[in-house]
């Protein structure tokens, strides 16, 4: 079936086949067998492609939380994530703006508590800004100090306009920082 489903082979033409027992309905493979049979009925191809789910440079997803984080990090390149009977879809930043009635009205909430780190050159110029969730090991690079200042003002009550006023920044720049923080999964907005 390589001509019908080219992705079943690696670039070198090899493949790793896995089979599902015929008596799968009687064991732990039951749901997987039903999925394959449904795909066969729809397409005439008696298989599904099972590939690893991870982002470049990251380990393969092993938990539901890993799956959600990787899905969100894909920033809309994957249509949805089916997870234990639930379909998850991402919400574009613009949908949040529309729901809030405009960018200045966006009220961000922290995705989790975080720690930050700002590094400077020997002259005192900022060389980098990064954050990580308290419970995580991976650091996330921010664009600049403004993004960190915005993140530090997020309290779940202040909107973008109030944050801009509090840090003495241009409102449009704060909204762009919120877009970055949203894309990095550091903030979210109430539905």
Automatic annotation (TrEMBL):
Q: Please name the source species.
A: Phaeomonas parva
Write down a Pfam family by its short name.
Carbam_trans_C
Q: What region holds the Carbamoyltransferase C-terminal domain?
A: 2-88
Q: What is this protein called?
A: Carbamoyltransferase C-terminal domain-containing protein
Q: Which InterPro entries match?
A: Carbam_trans_C (IPR031730), Carbam_trans_C_sf (IPR038152), NodU/CmcH_Carbamoyltrnsfr (IPR051338)
